[in-house]
């Protein structure tokens, strides 16, 4: 049996099992006269979530699991006739297909629970898919089954319970699949578990609240801080879990007559409507809040990164290179052009039969002045560069690498890039400027992370190695598993303002090369243009006295 087939069977088993388990939970909410799980049908969200997360390729594995779970569920609970079972199964298969199909069509294969417009698109697709299927069931069941409820009430309940199930469960399933692909950092996991426990405790408090208190205490007020905490600090899957806990509690309250929502003096219709309203509010609210905060976090992380980089570059007075390069082009072009024009005119005065010595002298004087002007420009540029701190001290390159890595810890974690170090324990120290050398390492590792990021793979690796290259030279190597660099770009990447990044300045490598060369070393790059890039810089080791 091929690995692919095993993989598909695994997906089918997981989807089917989760679908069956969630359908069994909601069967405890089964209420007459609707003959359906009247609050919410989370199983619908399971199949939708699987299809959205895994794409059309997983259609048959997921749907076969769903069909199997449906048949088992019907056998266990309904004992209805075969025709009705078929109608149930058809609706439960069609619904996720419609929703995932609409999302695929509108948003492509990059659906993300971290984007507000994707969440809104998902909600619209769910409303459409659930409407179609609820109408189908109402028509079939009203014509065929002795359900006493009016047709619209039936439709409304199917619509509400499937919609809530989808909104509550699909982001959770998508998030779990995403978390399996890219596990969250341990810190986030612990924080999320704590916040979900608080949410569960709060739901418990609401259930246990004495009746009179319901008039004065807004239950939502109790839940809101915890849900906000989850949405704000953790990835969307955990907010979906928190919402799931609340929905479960509300369902139980209504079904088992607990608390206000279980007040048996109120007609069951009213209690169900109340419960559904809260469930929908909580599920939609949690999904939107989580997406909003996820977007905010991403923006803040980007801003933090560019700020830190800018600060470092300013610290080392390296940013001046940009101004210097621009001023070279601007300032030198003009006197040089003037010199060329004057020289041409002077030659013309000398090339005639009786050369005009006086006018030629004026021209030569002008050339002298223009040359002096160009010289001044170069002097001023040199003064800009002399701002680059030239002080030299013995520096420990291994220590600099470890410090740089520790400051990049968060960036590495966010991009899920693993770093392997292989640092020579007996590496001799070199003479140099610690801050500038750190800038070189940071730039190279940053570039490696960004290069890996363009591949969209989760197993990116950066390897940093230090070695004694010869008796008087050490070498630092930074290798990555990114896309590499094409041969024809190998030299241009070291030029200023050459970049392939939308936000890039194209100065990083130019600055790195400048620094390394100012330390008497050399920075080189090698790549096969396919399986990553290797940047190496060689630094001289000062002779021992
Ligand atoms: P910037 O980071 O602003 O783009 P750099 O001078 O640091 O400027 O890099 C110039 C270009 O070299 C980058 O835009 C990228 O195309 C290429 N580059 C640098 N490092 C790598 C790497 N490790 N793998 C692939 N390409 C790289």
Structure description:
Helix content is 67%, strand content 9%. The protein has a five-stranded mixed beta sheet with strand order 4-6-7-9-8. It contains 17 helices and nine strands. The model has no long low-confidence stretch (mean pLDDT 82). Strand 6 and strand 7 (473-480) form a beta hairpin. It starts with a helix and ends in a 5-residue tail after the last strand. Helix 6 packs antiparallel against helix 10 and helix 10 (236-255) runs antiparallel to helix 11. The protein is of the alpha+beta class and 545 residues long. The protein has helices at 3-27, 42-54, 59-78, 82-107, 116-144, 151-181, 186-208, 213-216, 219-233, 236-255, 268-315, 320-350, 357-386, 397-407, 409-415, 434-453, 508-518; strands at 30-31, 36-37, 393-395, 418-423, 430-432, 461-470, 473-480, 522-527, 533-540. The structure holds adenosine-5'-diphosphate. Adenosine-5'-diphosphate (ADP) binds at residues 443, 447-448, 451, 480, 482, 485, 493, 498-501, 504-510, 533.
Low-confidence stretches: none
Compute the average pLDDT: 82
In what order do the strands lie side by side in the largest sheet?
4-6-7-9-8
Ligands in the model, by name, code or SMILES, are:
adenosine-5'-diphosphate
Specify the biggest β-sheet.
5 strands, mixed
Q: What share of residues is helical?
A: 55-70%
User: Helical segment tally?
Assistant: 17
Q: Give the overall shape.
A: elongated
Alpha-beta classification: alpha+beta
How many E-type strands? 9
Residues in β-strands, percent: 5-15%
State the end-to-end distance: 69 Å
Q: What is the H/E order?
A: HEEHHHHHHHHHHHHEHHEEHEEHEE
Based on CA atoms alone, the radius of gyration comes out at 34 Å
